[in-house]
Amino acid sequence: MDLFSEIEAPEREELRALRKELEEANYKYYVLNMPTLSDREFDEKMHRLQTLEAQFPDMFDPKSPTQHVGSDLGKKGFEQVKHKYPMLSLANSYSREEIEDWVRKLPSGVEIVCELKYDGLSISLWYEKGVLVKALTRGDGQQGDNVIDNIKTIPSIPWKIERNDVPDFFELRGEVLLPWERFEALNKEREEQEEPLFANPRNAASGTLKLQDPREVARRGLDAYLYYMLGENLPGSTHFERLETAKAWGFHISDAIKVCHSVDEVMNYIAYWDTERKNLPVATDGIVLKVNNLAQQDELGYTAKTPRWAIAYKFPAEKQLTLLREITYQVGRTGVVTPVANLEPVQLSGTMVQRATLHNEDFIKSLDIRPGDKVWVEKGGEIIPKIVGRTDRDIKDSNDIKDLKDLIFPTHCPECGAPLVRVEGEAAWRCPNETGCPPQIKGKIEHFVSRKAMNIDGLGEETIDLFYQKGLLHNIADIYDLKLEDIAAQERLGEKSAQNILDGIEASKQVPWARVLFALGIRMVGETTAKKIARKYNTIDTLMWATAEQLCAIEDVGPQIAENIVKYFEDIRNLEILDRLRKAGLQFEGEAEPEPTSDKLAGMSIVISGTFVHHSRDEYKAMIEANGGKNVGSVSKKTSFILAGDNMGPEKRKKAEDLGIPLKTEEEFLDLIKN
Ligand code: IVH
Known about the structure:
By secondary structure, the chain is α+β, with helices and mostly antiparallel strands. It has five domains: 3-67, Helix hairpin bin (Helix Hairpins); 79-314, D-amino Acid Aminotransferase, Chain A, domain 1, CATH 3.30.470.30; 319-403, CATH 2.40.50.140; 438-584, Orthogonal Bundle (DNA polymerase, domain 1); 605-674, BRCT domain (Rossmann fold, 3-Layer(aba) Sandwich), CATH 3.40.50.10190. 35% of the residues lie in helices and 19% in strands. The strands form five sheets. Strands 12, 13, 14, 15, 16, 17 and 18 form a seven-stranded antiparallel beta sheet that branches. It has a five-stranded mixed beta sheet with strand order 2-11-10-3-9. α1 (10-31) packs antiparallel against α2 and α16 (513-519) crosses α17 (527-536). It binds 2-(butylsulfanyl)adenosine. 2-(butylsulfanyl)adenosine binds next to β3, β8 and β11.
């Protein structure tokens, strides 16, 4: 008898563990929008699992992550629709040699289309008789969520193609993306509102597409690039021709697409875009190579998960090893204590990196890092470098065993010494000494004077620091007690700049109520939330008495924000400050704006033109806004439709025809917004 037959090969255990790990990673990535593995780690583990499964064919399991693509299903509220053609993923590689091999193994003379690999999430658009009827996410590859209302907020996606050469049905697939600029703005706003930041534009796009509020989706500004047309009896015999056709029909097709005829051409394309992609407005993570001829594509066919006629080359994430010198702690305006890694400076994607945020205590624990460790710093799809791991420690080398103890997070505020508190359910430690902790005092004043708040010119970070040191500023109300002679007496500040500051302070008394509310710096009350609150409560006196329950009825205000507001007005110190600000003449009242009554026109840009019978132009404008739409003056390709009355201007009519913008009569419009 074979003595070893009873003992299981350790690789079998590894295989099971990998399946479980990848299953979980898929769930966290697709359902929770919170990736736990980097793309590279995920791919490496997937490769390893594939190798092991080939080694142990008896362990085949159709449910293994190697046999199906990850799923983003499971969000409530969207119709689930079966894909006409399964949405597959692409085989990918980080090695240029493998790509060369793949090209060389194709039949000779085959044309290869090179494209950028956009790093967003895939979408499938269905057009029936030229009309967009569904927009499906990938889901589990077999069925996806219909997110059409959100997709319709993307200006470059046509709702209707007014041409007679469009087939009865076709499907266009592409990638939905949040441009870098929008991503940064969104994260900045989330930071202000103390909401968790998105790790990268892809996660932000994914979170945005799953929102149940198209108006918010429209505000965030998604974009889409399309790269694959499918259907029966479509024009063209090559992939490239089809994309050209789609372009002619008005779709957003990348200009970076190139038909290549040799390995060299492909490699040149990769080399060019490896650097040039950094100048693009959206995130890319590689190159996709596709066999151009559709008949040849059919011959090559598919595996269970991927087409054999395409492959992706993924750009390596830039990663460097460096020394973690020290961890310091920064106290923000709201008292949150953020650990910061101070690194031995290292060159990464063209910039010198010496600091990286460590977010919070849990993050440090999950990486298990301490000063003295060699850590990996990565700059991938994110702009901010991050620490992704460390090398093994050589215990023999360490003569100080104390260093190896777990890192202890400070128990007291590094700035004012107050004992830190950690709110149940939150990751952050906070200094509760709001009115006595210098960075909190200065941070609140900086926020108050900032451009989007009271916009007081001349009071920058340095000046605030100086005035704080000199005892002139302790809180936001002190700003309105500043005297010309006090300011002018400071070094570096003459009478002229003193007068400038006073003018800025005077002008701030006209800043409208919604911005004053934002400027107060109530925790989690950002610019947009403040606007929504100010719309409901048009004087501070009514807001002051609102209960948490009443506040929760406002869009965007959850129990946490409501509680922060109630607490703010319960604090006698705040009431004293508000009293002084009121006496100084700040706007604590505003006009109540009418609230939108429906989302029916969410994300739409509508032009009004001509004369009307049932309502005045102004009334139509109000109706558009009340239903979440935007009234714009001139016709462009972003216009959703024209509300056309009698005697519409001939120029507008011509432009609308040229751009294929639909016209709606008064009656059609009223029908559209009817309940
Ligand atoms: S073609 C059957 N082309 O990458 C092949 N995909 O890892 C269909 N992607 O699911 C995909 N840019 O979300 C194709 N130029 C491009 C792409 C692209 C990004 C995404 C897409 C796909 C994933 C595969």
